[in-house]
């Protein structure tokens, strides 16, 4: 059993990463159905929360069937981050996570996310203020460093643990790398195997198959894995990894009916949460992934991402089931 404060997770839990415009309640729902052990919200702007901006407040929507679920915050101002954590705790998340890893310009170039890797003292001060201000466990997601000359995650992990964080997730790239090249888990392993570290250490980056998950687990001894891009349109990655780790056997890929069922559920939950117009619009980014690898799908995909009618989309999904079943 892995414990994050008072949160009890199974041995070697699989976590769904906080991804902007992806990790919303509809997506979290389908991932939970397929075995995700811990979920996170999209990352939420501290400035938006303290202004009670509608978009930021909406990201705090969490549901009982998602638990355990964490709210992830980002920002550059210590006071704003502390106040935002207090606002976020009012929705009763299981934990508060701090984003010290986002590499995108609109976050990092404003002094938030991965930018804090350039100022470890400020990172520590900010975290300490949040830990003191909330009763929920506080965790951190970060990267190896800002660039190859500042690979300071081992020091950061020690100092953050010392001021009270309950777990750390490390993405195996620097900010300068963005998402390019291969993730390097060597320093993640160093953090985990550091005798000073006693909190759970989760690894993140490039795990896109059961075999890769097993390799990272066995090579670096980490406590669990956070999955991001590999789960988009493919929530079955969670059950496949769990089955492989338990048995050494690969599960067959999801059937067409399973793909359709998850896609329909995702669409329905999206509409329930966002309303029909926005729910349909924001579901469009997922269709390609749900039906990846299907032959002669281009025309159908184009229709799925251009229609605004729920009834028409459901009819197209039904037709996909019939047409491809007949082809088999």
Blueprint of the fold:
Blueprint: E1 2-4, E2 7-9, E3 14-16, H1 25-33, E4 39-45, H2 46-50, H3 54-58, E5 69-74, H4 78-89, E6 95-100, H5 105-108, H6 120-133, E7 138-143, H7 153-162, E8 168-171, H8 186-192, E9 201-204, H9 210-220, E10 224-227, H10 237-247, H11 256-274, H12 276-290, H13 298-304, H14 310-327
Helix pairs in contact: 1-11, 4-6, 7-8, 9-10, 11-12, 11-14
State the helical fraction: 40-55%
Order of helices and strands: EEEHEHHEHEHHEHEHEHEHHHHH
CATH class of the largest domain: Alpha Beta
What would CATH call the homologous superfamily of the largest domain?
Aldolase class I
Shape: globular
What does the radius of gyration come to? 20 Å
Q: Can you tell me the number of structural domains?
A: 2
Q: Indicate the mean pLDDT.
A: 92
